[in-house]
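User: Some background: our group keeps a shared notebook of sequences we're curious about, and every so often someone picks one and asks for a predicted structure to add to the entry. Today it's my turn. The entry only has the sequence so far, pasted here. Could you supply the structure so I can complete it?
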Amino acid sequence: MRWTLRFAIPAFLIAITLFVILYIKFAQIWDQYDAPAYAWVSLQNTFRGSKLYSPPPVAGKVEDKVVVMAKVESDHTDWVAENLPEYALHFVCVLSLFLPTALGAYINPHPTNSWQHAIYTVDPSVNSPNTTLTTPQNKGHESMAYLTYIIDHYTSLPATLAFIHPHRGGFLDAWHTDTPHHDNVDGLRNLRLEYVQQNGYVNLRCNWNPGCKVADRKNKHVTAKVWQEVFKGASKASFSQPEYVPGEVGSACCAQFAVSRERVLERPLSDYEGFRQWVLDTNMSDAKSGRVLEFLWHVIFGMDAVYCPDETSCYCNVYGRC
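Assistant: Of course. Here's the predicted structure to add to the notebook entry:
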């Protein structure tokens, strides 16, 4: 009996410990992936008989906004042209001169879905078309494409710039896309452009997990040394002073955001050239250098080192989900 208890008690304690660890990990994933909302929308789409449901978009002019993304050559980004066409608005405007309003709406029910496209291939092959947008180097993940667009178009930026990833959606691939079905088309269709203009910068992820939780704000990627390296020579002189290193750096992940032209222009072109040069020169890997910029975009675009808006207010302000 004693031998049985001697082995049973440790086995019980080990089992309880494993259960607690698994429970915490599962709860973390459940929250990050917003599993309940995803399951509910999937169920609704099943009964609707369509793959995805998108509410009507908010207003915006095609010539005033652009989608910027980085992709590898194997990524499929046809969904951008199919769902966010560049020229649909102009097409409907011309037709509306000759066709009834109802018919014009039928031809393009969501004309304001139209965006300019700047899709950069970071690993072009010899067979890539001459029209392919490319970056100086395949480094820094999406940051190289984001900064290259700003540098190359600094004097001709549209009013709103949305920086997103090349995958449209998917529970596993796009868990960080903060719409009920993790769908970037839904996100851009419902993005409140007027709020982007008002706020200057908006993170397209409102969920604090990961990046904004208190435990995440002692950011292991943005150390004091890295902060000084990135902002060395930046126009905001205080950033490059040794005494100015924030104790905490926090923002919801994952390098998908929108900014206004005015906010971009608050920094001189040389700042963006400097940030890109840091990515090119650093000894950090592609992934690690990209992760550093992921947690500094909000700072680059004028927000405090910890930028974590209340989740409820964020969903209302950014997407109109009030």
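Suggested note for the entry: Residues 2-32 form the longest helix (31 residues). Confidence is low (pLDDT under 50) at residues 23-33, 37-60, 88-99, 101-111.
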